[in-house]
Amino acid sequence: METKTAAGRVLLDCRGISKSYTGPQVLDEVDFSVDRGEIHALVGENGAGKSTLIKIVTGVTDRDSGELEFDGTAIPRSHSKKAAQELGIAVIYQELSLIPGMTVAQNIYLTKEPRFRALRLIDLRRMNDDAQALIDRYGFPLKAADLIDRLSIAQRQTVEILKALSDRASLMIMDEPTSSLTSAEATRLFDIIRKLKAEGISVLYISHRMEEVFDLSDRVTVLRDGRKVATLEKVKIDPAEIIRLMIGRDLGESDRGRRMTRKAGEVVLDVRSLSSPGLFRDISFELHRGEILGFGGLVGSGRTELVRAIYGIDAYDSGSIRYLGKDYRPSVRASIAGGIGFVPEERRLQGILAPISVTRNIGVANLDVLTKAGMVSGRRELQFARRGIALMNVKPDLPDMPVGSLSGGNQQKVVLGKWLIRDLRLLIIDEPTVGIDIGAKEEIYAHIEHLAAQGVAVILVSSDLPELTRLADRIIVLRKGRIVKEFDEGVVSEEDVLLASSGIVEGARR
Amino acid sequence: MNLAKLKAALRLPAVLVALMAVLTIVSPRFLAIGNLSNVLWSVCVIGILASGAIYAPITGGIDLSIGSIAALTGIFVDLLMNRAGVNWLLAIAATIALGAFIGLFNGLITTKFKVNAFIVTMAAKTYLYGIAMVISQGGMKSILKPAQFLAIGGGRSFGLPNPIYIMLALIVLSHILLTRSSFGRRAIAVGANEVAARLSGVDPDRTRMAAYTVSGATAAVGGIVLASLTQQSFAGAASGIELDVLTALVVGGTSLMGGSGSVVGAFIGAVMVAFIGNGLNLLNVPAPYHPTATGIVILLALIFNMGIAPRKRGAAGGKHLRRTS
Fold first, then answer.
1. Distances (CA, A) of A69 to A8, A53, A360, B33, B195
2. Is A382 on the interface with B (CB under 8 A)?
3. Is this complex's ipTM strictly greater than 0.90?
4. Does CATH number 1.10.150.390 belong to domain A258-339+424-508?
5. Could you say which residues from 219 to 258 on chain A have a Cβ atom under 8 Å away from some Cβ of chain B?
6. Domain over A10-247 is classified CATH 3.40.50.620
7. Residue B202: its chain A contacts at CB < 8 A?
């Protein structure tokens, strides 16, 4: 199975890796290898198993079965993060693993500081000198004494790489490393990656950005539904081919696409030339009664920022919004009062009040209706909660239960339910089904479709392509903060959306 | 109310009853009405302060300035009545307004400048003490009139000292405010997950400011009661009381991480701590041993209480997105 490239022998070798958490197989007999000094891209849709594979390699998760070998050493089924690190496997995080108040040198040598023999005190000068020597060897524009706080995200990433280098890592894993970088910063990162390759270090590169993958990689491995679909050599890499492999169908076979239809009804939301520097630019669209408008695009394309601005969480710079025929200056309160509901991405961080009961979670969003003279009617609040629970089929149907102890799907039902018991005109939902089980997913889809049938306008932001093409009546694709494509007629398939998101389709360029 | 919830709600009262039973066994004098009313009387200022101070930790903050506010307002009310000749009722109203204003200022600094509440109120504790020193000229002043004012803290009604009624009234009011008012709901929501609360239409800054305002106002009430009760005012009158209040809150199940708390629990917490001291007195334990014994008992109560205070929360992730706490 393994193809040895000219660069040398196999560094990381995975054979028949399988993993399931509860129920479905997340990884199914995956064979995969990275050669020494190779840049290897790992691609696949959300949920294809990329992160799980990385977690297994780095010792975060145990595999169920399969062989794992690194640099000729067999890795036991259950190994630790530390063991992986000692073998020379490093993960480059974006920024979270650095300590902000410390210097570059202190971060690089954290827990392995050079020490004086006497008293084992830290030898600060040697630490700084060593760090600076490392920095200079790679020609990074950094000073060993710089504080992390003062660095840009791109510079922090460089520190992460330095840290891995100081650990003598021979494999660096980068998960979506360019998602919050500017294009100039990304270009610099690619130079660094090539430099690492020249030193014989392997890079396992995960990205949704196809052009990067093609520019950079020696080989590309495509995962789909937990299985390895193919590993392609550089010469054979073709963007459209990879997207077909990721989605799993041929171009001709577009019967699973969805026919887009422009709704004719009353305009609920009219957005004109909305811009926010660095986030999105010149966004214009209309949304009609009963219409589900999908927003496609890659993570970081500005979709979330756009809908947050429309709901009134963040300010925008220029442009205008008309809502229900009137000029609208969004604020969260005005939005709620005006019949707009908002289901944010990252349910645990932004959606639920975990330690608080279902009743209170539903109550908080409905305080305007439940409060009289500053007092909340507990009886009516409970009625609201019961309505929400019954409507959304929340299980278990206990109003007193802290939301945090419900399953992910039921948590999301509570977040959605608190809006659905209101008189809604517009519902904005951002990645509504991430990490929830298939049953709850279907129920949530049914609710969204039912709402639209009742005349509620829906904005759906989703990176889940089957979800987007299944639910949306129209799809707008954002790329780097701009609308690059609008699908409002004809049959649209997942790959059409993905191609536009990745900037590959000719017509998508503007 | 389901069984688990009932069990959790009864846990703290059960500890209190157990403690009382032990004290009754070791000292028959413990259950005498006179003794119990003495204990209640001794915690009334702590109880009054706790009734309002609870909102800061519930929103995920803390108010360390309440002791200084109490001392300052005690001096202020005396100056108004006995120096400026203001009617005692008006003086009290103005003093509570001053306390509320100081609290609002604390809240304003924490929210608008995004400074940690611990630091803001720690600073306030110090400069308010300084202001109290200046306006009292560093001295202790006796308050000998008016009689109506002195009756607030010194008088009795139906056989019990007046401050007990004031404390109980504030505890009940605050309990209603926390559990039934929309302000209470917002405060809990902000403490539980500020981001999610904001997306649900709660204004976290306004909620926090309101929390510190309430805290300042009840600290002023405490200051008035204390001045009336002791018939004196000085800058150090309530020094360190904020820690007693925090102890009562925490023993009573209020989470310093925000999102949960109980006013009734805080009251029980204050009473329990006082019972411990009282029990030690009744047992003729020499005074030097009291702080050690009290500290150990508080620690035990907290450990036993873990069932009430939220365990390490799954929602802790939400804290990363918080701007102040």
1. 16, 14, 51, 77, 44
2. no
3. no
4. no
5. none
6. no
7. 364, 367
